[in-house]
Amino acid sequence: MTESVFVNIYRGVDCGELGKITVRTDGESDVKAGDQIGLSFHTNKLHFFYSKGLFAAFP
Fold this sequence. Notes:
Elements: E1 2-5, E2 8-14, E3 20-26
Antiparallel strand pairs: 1-2, 2-3
């Protein structure tokens, strides 16, 4: 899944046994479906949601 929103692109990433996640990339990204990529995270910018789409707040 790919969804463009302004200058950002939201992509669905299949992480195998860990499941699927949605990541935000800049509009300059040239990643295509089926590409293998590495991921790194800014922990202060992570957002977690329950499977029903509700935001999961953490202390």
